[in-house]
């Protein structure tokens, strides 16, 4: 059986609620104030079983101009519209505004119900019908059935049911695909059950026992039970009017406008890129950065509209806009929205969300314009490639793409596999799966090679660069996993080499120049002659009258050649002299069982300047183990 939601629209006191009662026997006005004032204030809900057995949910909306925001919250999830027009009044202001809202929200199916026909004669009905036909020309209701009824006498109700059955038969059922979303339109508590929310599922499905997330607050809850048309169910899918009973969340933590999702699938946003159509009926031009009311799903959020291609949008014109929200919004691409002016409040336009996490957008920019065109096309592959390109060396993971595109996991995985097979994108990490473009990989490779070339030119005696040193020269946003992927790829290709912890170009070989060879010989002789009491680095520089940087380069080379051993930044030992000290120390400890500072001084005759670095070296190389103020041999 199809999952269909019907909704009403129309001016106040045109008989929407009375019509639903005539169709279903249910009075959707449940509030005391609604009974007293005789008008609908809040959304009403019930269901209708058509003659052929098809069951449809029904949403009744208020018609008063003060409650249009409630009306918008109700019609966002409907499949077909019953536009209700009273025969004694015809088209009225909220008839016009409600039809504008339905057009903005891309509702494409419906019919017109001409109510209160018992209050006028046939000639008047014909005249009003002609006026209505003229008014709806050019809209989705052009050519739609106009069914005269009287809810008071029951005249025409059977004809309306027959037309509704034909209408429902022609409506395509919403697919289950997509990320689960249920915009909350009502929150209440039931004794013995706890917190309950209702709404129309826009996409995806949910099952009893599943954990869900309430956005934008990111509150977690578990679905204790599900009801559809007042009957319990194990699951609910797109297109169903659904009540969810929650476990683990209080009623006070929820409100209309919240969105129920599966955890981690959608991220709230403070900005959005959208196409905006400014209604011809709007009372004035829309200026850049105008403060307006944004309606999507069941939410109303104050925001600023940044016009991207002009300073003022005239009624009847359209433009791409950036929407800056004053509180978090929960949106996905291709969501429809309605704009209403801040004050006085009236519907002025709306359109389609293109991007729920846009980067910085420049006004009057060709790049921004091309970006908007790509996203407006609805091409998921083009959108995914755009997001990868914009992420650059940061990369983008599947969860981020899913939250941007609104594609469910299986379809997203198939799209990614197809692009990877074609070589259009590259996965540089498995857990999580992170993506980038081949040109980004090439740019990082070129950056690594350029850095190494420059480093070799400035430091000819150094063997290369440490991994983190090399990464530090890349753009700060470079993903660590991407960097690791690229370096391993370059090593496998032979484009760079790795010797111990150093990365280098394959052609780089540390070579001493003529003057440096002589200096190397002098430094080696100085340390060899010094034996157990080598010069400090400062003394070396002063003795040989050389630059510290030059001394450091040759000392590093001698350490790599194992001619010298580095004990600290200041103390280096000639390898033979150090080996002699270690052997004597080991022999002493084998005889005595331990080594103290006093014993070490008596053994070597060295001062604390040398003993402390030597102790640390013996501990570091696991010759000795410190136990309090003494050392023992490691086993």
Describe the model.
The protein is an alpha+beta fold and 635 residues long. The chain folds into six domains: 167 residues, Rossmann fold; 81 residues, Translation factors (Elongation Factor Tu (Ef-tu), domain 3, Beta Barrel), CATH 2.40.30; 104 residues, Translation factors (Elongation Factor Tu (Ef-tu), domain 3, Beta Barrel); 58 residues, Winged helix-like DNA-binding domain superfamily/Winged helix DNA-binding domain (Arc Repressor Mutant, subunit A, Orthogonal Bundle), CATH 1.10.10; 66 residues, Orthogonal Bundle (Arc Repressor Mutant, subunit A); 58 residues, Orthogonal Bundle (Arc Repressor Mutant, subunit A), CATH 1.10.10. It is built from 19 helices and 35 strands. The strands form nine sheets. Strands 7, 8, 9, 11, 12, 13, 15 and 16 form an eight-stranded antiparallel sheet that branches. The chain has a six-stranded mixed sheet with strand order 2-3-1-4-5-6. Helix 11 crosses helix 13. The longest helix is centred in the C-terminal third of the chain and has 21 residues.
